[in-house]
Write the structure tokens for this entry.
Amino acid sequence: MNSSQRINITKASSHSAISEGKLTRWLLSTVALSFLILFLLLPLFTVFAEALRNGWQTYGKALSDADGLAAIKLTVIASAIAVPLNLIFGVAAAWSIAKFEFRGKVLLSTLIDLPFSVSPVVTGLIFVLMFGASGWAAPLLNNTDIQILFALPGIVLVSIFVTFPFIARELIPLMQEQGSDEEQAALSLGANGWQTFWHVTLPNIRWGLLYGVLLCNARAMGEFGAVSVVSGHIRGETNTLPLHVEILYNEYNFAAAFAMASILACLALVTLAIKAVLEKTHGLKH
Amino acid sequence: MDIQLSGISKQFGQFKALDSVGLNIQSGELLALLGPSGSGKTTLLRIIAGLENADIGSVYFDGVDMANTPLRERQIGFVFQHYALFKHMTLRENVSFGLRVKTRAFRRPAAAIRARADELLKLVQLGGLEDRYPHQLSGGQRQRVALARALAIDPKVLLLDEPFGALDAKVRKELRQWLRDLHQQTGVTTVFVTHDQEEALELADRVVIMQKGKIAQLGSVDQVYEQPASPLVFNFLGDSNIIAAQLQNGAVYVGDAEIGAYSPSANIAVLDEGAVDVYVRPSDLRIADAEQVGIEVVVNSIQRTGPIVRAEVSFAHSTFGQSHSTLRVELPHLHHDVPRFQIGATLRLRLMQFSVFAPQTITAVREQLSAPILIGRERERLAG
């Protein structure tokens, strides 16, 4: 049998598999759709329904509660520190992995994925073990006023740890695909390193970078496990949004809990919407 | 500006890309680096540019050692194989990039930069397309933008890496002529890398033929074509027939028949008497007159392909012990020899021009022959 015949047969069989199995097709799409509705849309709807169960007034009151506002503020501050730091780290790591050859490149590339494979609770514990009263770094901190655990620095540290793969992982394939010809061309034309980065590299990666930042930010704001371990749950002081939701829920204050949760849900929706727009207009493929 | 390379070696892991290469490039000349894939030609070009550093050896621009001069200060115009245009910039922005990134003290006013970019785009026949983006252009147009961008910084030397490699045959021919004209206008020292012997011979003043990280031959187009220094160079520059022969009293014999006098060129070591290989191009075989020396052959087949008639012939006397028992002959279709090439006819052929080398082992010949075969494939891939 020659190859063209073989191709024809494969084509024909795959074609018939699609056209004949109407029942299969219907079953598959029904399963997929029901799954989507059951596990994604319904919970999302519930969040907003529960949040508004007692009307807009209660919703507004829950959001303007002093502890709630403090939680929002803390979440925004922690993300505002963690995301830019990860932006710098992500660009640097992606740049070096995609454009240079060096010893330990494989190691770096593997280590970047570490936070994906470590449970967030374990991440939190690592930082407790390091900075806790009897931790490794405790002797260094004992003589200073610096409070890391149960304070903003601890929350920022775990947020950075948990979210650092997002931007790097977004950029590495993009930069590898683009190679370094354009950068070399810029250098040969007399541009210095900064001009090359700013005028050539950055414009080429901007949409991937923005997408990475969005994902990183969404995760930084939504992180629960790791933050929960290091935060200490002090109301109005070290409670981030997700932690505050849990506390309210445990106090049977459902309306307020869901109101807070709805903010996080909105963040997720906005992130998805921007992502969709970016993919449509700039052809990002993921 | 003239360029001297001395003792350049470069290794990538276990692979020796360049093995103590020395080369003098004269000011204003158009030089081709020709060789099969992996011969080190692109690495050499990148070392001249400063895109790569040599492990050993030095690069001198006008006698000044460039070891501590980075790429961005060498003032070279480098044209990349795949153009490397800035995708997000218009043509004008691309071409003016080199002028815009200069430090304030050396930067011309914005209007002057703009005018210079537009002037260069006109020079490369892309006037009117200043506000287009690279993705809106054809391959040949992109290549011309890349050239204009490289010329914008008034380079001391223009380096081109396989400049026409990715273009189709017709555009390639046009751009060759155009580059030749441009070189005459600007007079910039120009070095280009190619694996296409036709391109090298047509464009360059001098050709450097590279093999396995070394220079196999350096010379004018006529020199390398007519007096190839090695079987490799001969094979690389065109089709070849290889005939086992004997060297006796300053004459070359195939079997009993004399085919010509042995006159060693300056490039090669003088051969001892005895067995030799004769290399002759299919287009250098013609029918011998009665008084001329030649070898008797029988015509096996004839193929007409427009302007060229190709014939395959075998030796009339099989006692020569030939490893390649057939020869290929090429004639212009209007040549007066053509009617006499009839299948089965016995003819006496003379070798108008041939080269004599020491006999090669079969593997050595295969190795050398493998180079042009690879190039054929490379070209197909690029054209497709």
The CA atoms of residues 121 and 127 of chain B lie 5 Å apart.
